[in-house]
Design a protein that fits this description.
Two copies of one chain form a homodimer. Chain A is an all-alpha fold and 315 residues long. Chain A has one domain (5-312): Orthogonal Bundle (Farnesyl Diphosphate Synthase), CATH 1.10.600.10. Chain A is built from 17 helices and two strands. The first copy, chain A, has helices at 5-12, 15-39, 48-58, 65-76, 81-102, 119-123, 125-144, 151-165, 171-181, 188-213, 218-245, 248-251, 257-260, 266-270, 272-288, 291-295, 301-312; strands at 112-113, 116-117. The two termini of chain A are 24 Å apart.
């Protein structure tokens, strides 16, 4: 089996699907950016420092992966985008708050993110902490105030997002475990668990929220959960690989930082080649978990194309 | 008019009411502490560092003022404590997260809180940031998962809490404005606005959440909002005064810090004597706003006693 991503690209992406995905991604990003602009306070609203810092971080050229996934899953199950958009933005707010806090000097100490100064470099540490805090609050406010959805759905979404963002089952638990694991040996099982929490939990929540809003069945929700879990793994492994193989320009952040900090990464544990095999295996499992949808007469091309897209990402 | 707090104590507190309040406070604190213990992960749950840090900060001898107020208002309007407790804890989680982040070196840089080491001194900055982040998430999770309340009520509570905790109408906006105001002259109007956001918003939310859970009428909610707004003002002014008059031992934190940081405070703007007059005026307005409740045949002794209690607090 050839494990190079370039070959994998040729094997998995039919041209039509790639074009569909590109159109979906570019249209959806525009929708998401417009919704984020509507939901967040203008820079001119006092206190202007924190609102300017929030917008600096939210509109920094992010890939909008979690919103895209939420919308793709929701649309797969037949929901209209306008029902999905605000929750999609809430997940992007949670993701952005975590980046702002992660970049702080006492955390990963990153000066560069998506090709420009991180929030604390631009606005100072105190404002960056507050911007992150406010973004988390905005995420829950956004869902709570989304009157297009029933109260029962909103409560279910908020519970889902909070479990995936906090501790002990979510993103903050992953970040804390990651800190605990620095400068000591971790087992493969521990590494999987760190990734599952740190990156996977919020990606799974994005997919599940899309399915919940669309009123997916219990079986469909289980399928989507497994698909998203593999997608999260795929995402983290490509991140680890890019950290050691990509340039700062392509990455938009400082490469090689994980390695220098002796972070628990797949390449550190398995080596680059075996890590690439893990990648292809996660991709195959993600696609297999979509088979049930086909049997339920759902179209799953978009979700398959997303799995391909992550496998092949260069930044 | 004699503006000394000691005289005010004699004037406003009938012995029976003081005893009632003391019993209410001690019973309610026990209930709240037990509920917080139930709602938050044990220290032994991994990642243990962040859960130990969360409990260090939550169980640090806090006064539980926001939960007490929520329960007092809810019970005034006839709700059973078990319906109020989880939301009361959510407000305490928001409050505690804000203290943990406020104490960080880039913010107020406090080593001491409630008589012991602050979270970042004890566990390091990275863990303190994550503990605060997780506590905020827990607050929303707690309300979203409170199945004793209808979904419609939970959504209303989450919207209320998020507006009072974030920006531009809540606590984080107050903290950001406070930072912006450091080392420059502020007007009395700006000072009122900073306090209203930084401390007042969450206190108002606590009172309103109690009233909402109890199904208070629109008029009752308006009355309670005004009462709590004055209570918030009272709370902030006593805080400012204590910062310059109390000892570290009585205060459990480093006194005089506001003054040295040239923070916008009432005594800095008006002097100590005029600030004490403000205090009594806020107390009188708080009590007056409860008059409507009497006309609606509600008992308001407990809420009056709380206003007295803050007026007289020594720490």
């Amino acid at each position: 089996m050839n494990t190079s991503p370039e070959t994998a690209e040729l094997e998995t992406s039919a041209p039509a699907t790639t074009a569909d995905l590109q159109q979906f991604v570019s249209e959806t990003r525009k929708l998401v950016d417009a919704a984020l602009d509507r939901l967040l306070p203008a820079e001119s609203v006092p206190p202007t420092t924190v609102h300017t810092a929030i917008r600096w971080s939210v509109f920094a050229g992010g890939k909008r992966f979690r919103p895209l996934l939420l919308l793709a899953v929701g649309e797969t199950f037949g929901a209209r985008p306008e029902l999905l958009l605000d929750t999609a933005c809430a997940l992007e707010m949670i993701h952005t708050y975590s980046l702002v806090h992660d970049d702080l000097p006492s955390m990963d100490d990153d000066d560069l993110r998506r090709g420009r100064a991180t929030c604390h470099i631009r606005f100072g540490e105190a404002t960056a902490i507050l911007a992150g805090d406010a973004l988390q609050t905005y995420a829950f406010k956004t869902v709570a105030e989304d009157e297009k959805l029933s109260a029962a759905t909103r409560v279910q979404l908020i519970a889902e997002i909070s479990r995936s963002a906090g501790t002990p089952t979510g993103m903050v638990a992953g970040q804390a475990s990651d800190l605990e694991a620095e400068s000591r040996e971790v087992t493969a099982a521990e590494l999987e668990q760190i990734h599952r929490l740190k990156t996977g939990a919020l990606i799974i929540a994005a997919a599940r929220c899309g399915a919940i809003i669309a009123g997916a069945s219990k079986d469909e929700l289980a399928s989507i959960t497994e698909y998203a879990a593999q997608l999260g793994l795929l995402f983290q492994i490509t991140d680890d690989l890019l950290d050691i193989t990509a340039s700062a320009a392509a990455l938009g952040k400082t490469p090689g930082k994980d390695q220098r900090a002796q972070k628990a990464t797949y390449p550190a544990l398995y080596g680059v080649e075996a890590t690439r095999e893990h990648l292809l295996s996660a991709h195959a499992t993600a696609c297999a978990s979509l088979d049930l949808l086909g049997r339920l007469d759902r179209r799953s091309e978009l979700l398959r194309a997303i799995a391909d897209f992550i496998l092949e990402r260069q930044a």
